[in-house]
Each structure stands twice: as structure tokens, then as C-alpha cells.
Write a structure and sequence with these properties.
Length: about 500
């Protein structure tokens, strides 16, 4: 069923005001994506202080778990109450969560603070794309969303370098505290400039549906990490967890079919574009976001690079994302077609990950940098199409809910993948029986400890990590292939043309 409809009048008709608001939105995006990237190269240092290497993945997956659980709720709240104050609340929560992370005293407290931080991060990611849908018409939106790649470039390029450098110079806590001034500036700017469009319908929140959905997501993500929690993904406790998650999912569908304002309206599934893009974004998140921390771990353990030097390689990854996203955004804006970009992006990801699985000891660093650039191009080429596609197919009153659902699947896929990838690497390392001189437990290594090992021992460690990462890259390639199959099944729809004249009454609907 095609529920495509004419685009609504933009929230702001003044080009200068729209540009100013968009800049503050990009600053919020910079803050959120910087947090993901800046943590990656500092994780080994954090583990070196707190220990508990087995919880390496939880520092990221806890953030992604909380982010994923609240995304549909934020999207729906924006549809019901207006997006301005929902966005501001999310930024305040994220900034306060960053403060808590900066003063964590143990691995458990840091993971708990990351959960709190994720409660705001989910709202930032959903609200930015939903506000863009209010500010710009479909084809213009494709062009402006490509500009978000500039923020991805800045945060992605600076993040890993800052994470390594700041943890070396000022301690790892500084990588979280840097969010405080950015958050304060963004809150002030959006509070003053962003209008609040009040929806015409009476707000009704599906609290029970939101709770059940969050429980289902939490169970699925925790089950993906059950190898580390329970020792096996088939342990009785793990099976009970996934069983409870399945019950919650079924109950959620029943609830959503009966409440007047569902968190994710089931009518969205009548259009196959929405359903297919849920699968595509889950696979894209597993490959594009879930792999970030493991690229850093891969570089530091196999090449012996320091955290700051390993961070430099992310310039190639994020540079590729920028180039691919800018090119795709302009072509989507010009042609109105978005399916080809999902197909090409995922096809390139399959090739890039298969090439990563073939690298071994002695691989030149320049080749690794080229592969990072190639993977970035693949991710950038396909990252805009899902949100543009579902916003084009969803009814106007459900744009926020649809955007939240797609963003949820991206972050949920990343969270599940992080846990799964960690289980793959951990299992491979524990399965080795090769003793290494001067090293009792390979999984407890930090970059500093690795640099202090004799050269022969360091090369032995690198060889074991190369072997451990081969099945990880193959698994990620298979996930990208599943997403590619879904992309090939998309219907070839075009975005509607922009209206020639704007309605000056649009600004009259706004309130501070």
C-alpha cells in the first residue's frame, strides 16, 4: 500500500533562520557522534584502569541498548507534543549523562552512566531527522541531510584521535566531559531559534506499549551478549531471556493494534518500503556502527599502533562516509530515487568486509587505510536512503514514529552486533592453546602492555588477533549480504517534486 502524500509546509520559511537552526542541529549531531567515536580508541585504556576485559563491549552496547529502547518513544513524543522541547530534553539528558560518565569510579558505574547517557542520545538522533522533515521538503531534505556528513567527518575524524590523545594527556574522563560545553551551547541556540509546531491531535501516550517494547529490545540485546553473561547463547538462562523477549514482542503487537496512539502504528507495515528498510537499517547499523570499536581494537592489537595513531586511520573511514554521503545526497535530490543507493552501499560493504577478512601479518598500513576508506564510502553511500524512504512513504502524522522505528533498528542492529562480535573474538582468543612468553592472559592486554612486550611476543599476539578477527569480518559480510537482499526487493519509488511557491503563513504556526 502506497501511502505517499504531498509534503507539508516547511516549519520555517526564512532561509537564514532555517540555516541557523540546521547548524545547531548539526552541532547536536556532532556531540552525539563524537561520543561514539571518541570512546573507541580510549576503551583499551579504560579497561586498563578498571580491568574486566570481558565487559569491553558493554561500554558501547549499554549506550546503544538505552538509545535503541527509547528511540520509538521519542519519535512518538515528537509527533504528539511537538519536536522542540522533546529535542531539548534529550540534549539535557545526554549532557548530564556525559557528566556522570566523567566521574565514574568503576566499570559498573561507567556502564550505568552510559545507559543514562543513551537515554538522551536516542532522542537526539531521532529528533534531528524528524525536525529536518519539518524544515525541508523531500528533495531539499535529501540535500541537507547530506550536509550532516560534514559533522560525521568532523566527529569521526577528530573523535578517535581526540579519544587517544586526550586519554593519554588528560585521562580518559576528559573524553566525556568535553560534551558539557557543547551541550550547553546547543540547548541555548535551539531554545531561542527553533519554533515549536503544536500538533492538532490530543496527546495520548501508550505507556504500556513503550514499556513492553523496551523490555523486548533489552532482552534481545542481552541475549546477543549471553555468551559472556551466561557462558553460552544456548544456556537455559539465555533461552529463557530470548523466550521472554519473544513474549514481550508478541504482547507489544497486540497492544499496538488496540491503542489509539501506538508507539509504532502497525499501518506503517502495509507499505513494504517501511518493512524492508527496517531490515536494511538493522544490517547497516551492524556493519556501519557495530564495527567501529572493533576496527580500533583490530588496529591496536594487530599492528601495535598507539590509541592516538590508530585514531588517525579513522580519518579514512569517516572521509569515505562523507564523500559517499555527499554524492548520494545530491544524486537523490536531483533524481528523486533512493533504492539504488541502498543496493550499491550494501554491495560495497560486502566486498570491503570480505577484503578485510583476507588481511594478515605483514599487510602494509597503507592498504589497511585504503580498506578503511573503501568501507567508509560503502557506509556513506547508503546511510541516507532508509530515513528518506520511510519519511516519504509514511503518513504525515506518523513521520516521527517511522523515523524513530528506523533509527531504532539501526542502533539495535549495532548493539546486537557489538555483543555478537565480542563473543566471536573472545571465543577465538580463549580457544588458543599457544603459550606466549611474558603473557599469561592475552585478553587482558592493553595498548601500553602490548608495546612493552618483546617483539617476538608482540608478533605472536598479532597473529592470534588476526585469526580471531577473520570470522568476525566474515560474519559482518554475511550480515551486509542479508541487507543487500532486502534492498533488492525495494519498490523503485521517486521522491515528490518540491512546490514552486512557499506559504508565508508557515511561520505563523510557531510558538517559542
Amino acid at each position: 500500500m502506497d501511502v505517499t502524500r504531498p509534503a507539508q509546509q516547511p516549519l520555517v520559511t526564512s532561509p537564514k533562520l532555517r540555516l541557523a537552526i540546521f547548524c545547531f542541529l548539526m552541532a547536536a549531531l556532532f556531540m552525539a557522534t563524537l561520543d561514539n567515536q571518541i570512546v573507541s580508541t580510549a576503551l583499551p585504556t579504560i579497561v586498563g584502569e578498571f580491568g574486566e576485559m570481558e565487559r569491553f563491549g558493554w561500554i558501547s552496547s549499554a549506550f546503544l541498548l538505552a538509545t535503541s529502547a527509547v528511540m520509538p518513544i521519542y519519535g512518538k513524543l515528537g509527533d504528539l507534543f511537538g519536536r522542540k522541547y522533546v529535542m531539548l530534553t534529550a540534549i539535557v539528558l545526554f549532557t548530564f549523562g556525559s557528566f556522570l560518565c566523567g566521574f565514574a569510579w568503576s566499570m559498573d558505574s561507567l556502564i550505568a552512566a552510559r545507559v543514562f547517557q543513551g537515554l538522551g542520545g536516542g532522542g537526539i538522533m531521532v529528533s534531528i531527522f524528524s525536525i529536518n522533515a519539518d524544515l525541508f521538503e523531500p528533495r531539499e531534505r535529501a540535500k541537507y541531510q547530506s550536509y550532516s556528513s560534514l559533522m560525521l567527518m568532523a566527529s569521526g575524524s577528530l573523535g578517535p584521535v581526540l579519544g587517544g590523545t586526550m586519554s593519554d594527556l588528560f585521562g580518559w574522563r576528559s573524553i566525556f566531559l568535553i560534551n558539557l560545553p557543547i551541550g550547553a551551547i546547543v540547548v541555548a541556540g535551539l531554545f531561542i531559534l527553533l519554533p515549536n509546531r503544536r500538533p492538532s491531535r490530543k496527546p495520548r501516550i501508550d505507556y504500556f506499549g513503550a514499556l513492553v517494547l523496551a523490555a523486548a529490545i533489552a532482552c534481545i540485546v542481552a541475549w546477543a551478549d549471553s555468551k559472556q553473561i551466561f557462558g553460552s547463547m544456548l544456556a537455559p538462562e539465555a533461552l529463557a531471556l530470548i523466550g521472554f523477549g519473544a513474549v514481550c514482542a508478541a504482547l507489544w503487537v497486540w497492544i499496538e493494534s488496540r491503542v489509539p496512539e501506538p508507539i509504532v502504528p502497525l499501518r506503517l507495515f502495509r507499505d513494504s518500503t517501511f518493512s524492508l528498510y527496517l531490515l536494511i537499517t538493522m544490517c547497516s547499523g551492524a556493519v556501519g556502527i557495530g564495527m567501529v570499536n572493533y576496527y580500533s581494537l583490530f588496529l591496536q592489537t594487530t599492528t601495535g599502533l598507539s590509541p592516538s595513531m590508530a585514531g588517525l586511520f579513522f580519518i579514512g573511514l569517516t572521509g569515505g562516509i562523507v564523500i559517499g554521503s555527499l554524492v548520494a545526497g545530491r544524486l537523490i535530490s536531483r533524481t528523486g530515487r533512493y533504492k539504488p543507493f541502498s543496493v550499491v552501499g550494501l554491495a560495497l560493504s560486502v566486498v570491503a568486509l570480505l577484503l578485510f577478512s583476507l588481511v594478515g601479518q605483514g599487510t602494509p598500513l597503507a592498504l589497511l587505510a585504503a580498506l578503511m576508506l573503501f568501507q567508509g564510502l560503502a557506509v556513506g553511500f547508503g546511510q541516507q536512503a532508509p530515513i528518506i524512504g520511510v519519511q516519504n512513504s509514511a503518513p504525515r502524522e506518523d513521520v516521527g514514529a517511522a523515523t524513530g522505528a528506523v533509527t531504532l533498528m539501526r542502533m539495535g542492529g549495532a548493539s546486537i552486533a557489538i555483543s555478537t562480535y565480542g563473543a566471536i573474538v573472545g571465543t577465538s582468543l580463549k580457544g588458543t592453546a599457544s603459550p606466549i612468553p611474558g603473557l599469561d592472559d592475552i585478553a587482558s592486554l592493553t595498548p601500553k602492555m602490548l608495546a612493552e612486550l618483546p617483539e617476538a611476543s608482540r608478533q605472536a599476539v598479532a597473529g592470534l588477533y588476526y585469526q580471531a578477527f577473520t570470522p568476525l569480518f566474515l560474519s559482518a559480510a554475511f550480515i551486509a549480504f542479508l541487507g543487500l537482499l532486502a534492498a533488492l526487493c525495494l519498490k523503485p519509488k521517486n521522491l515528490p517534486m518540491a512546490r514552486k511557491a512557499a506559504d508565508p503563513a508557515g511561520d505563523a504556526q510557531t510558538a517559542a
